[in-house]
């Protein structure tokens, strides 16, 4: 992992800066969350159903709103994130809301070095795998942390979306669907607050659906389903239109915006 250490350090620094901005943003709507509103979206709620009494590991949890939303629903949660500022805020929220979630600061690929228990559910969502250079160690770690018969669930932005460069507000197709080379981006603002003056410096990688699916299969997981959707729960791409169900679509939709995978450890 040595060659990637610098990339991860730069990303960690950016995510540490994002925490303060995001915690104040309309998108994360902290007051409503603290008052009891869930941060979870219909996809993951439908896929995982009743989590009461189940153990749940949330990978790349940012500052823990989704983790704590699962916790409110009765799951025994552990959240993992690269950002120590994110984990610090997550722990503070957990205490303030009198929940029993735990949070661990580490690179998601190193989770098994920091978390030894196994879980009924491993969950991750929205803008997560693009931070990882290789999905095989990620999938192996997921398998290690799942109980036999346990469920892995991911809902994520579709890889086609990451083929475009959005920096100037006009999507331009620039990157390969399955790009192996690292992609560096530097821009002012963040997806939750475009007007912020913070500078995001980010290293990422593009992973096609076959890479995601095959990494999970190779790690010993059985895919229950793979679905694709023409909508996004977040208004984080240019020129999206809000539709009746509260989701967002493109004006001229030619490809999906989300995919979800549910898998079982056999």
UniProtKB/TrEMBL annotation:
Q: Which Gene3D superfamilies match?
A: Vaccinia Virus protein VP39 (3.40.50.150)
Q: Which UniProt keywords apply?
A: Methyltransferase, Transferase
Name all Methyltransferase type domain ranges: 58-154
Molecular function, one GO term: S-adenosylmethionine-dependent methyltransferase activity
Q: Which InterPro entries match?
A: Methyltransf_11, SAM-dependent_MTases_sf
A Gene Ontology biological process in which this protein takes part is: methylation
Q: Which residues form the signal peptide?
A: none
What's the protein here called? Answer: Methyltransferase domain-containing protein
Species this protein is from: Winogradskyella ouciana
Q: What is the lineage of its organism?
A: Bacteria, Pseudomonadati, Bacteroidota, Flavobacteriia, Flavobacteriales
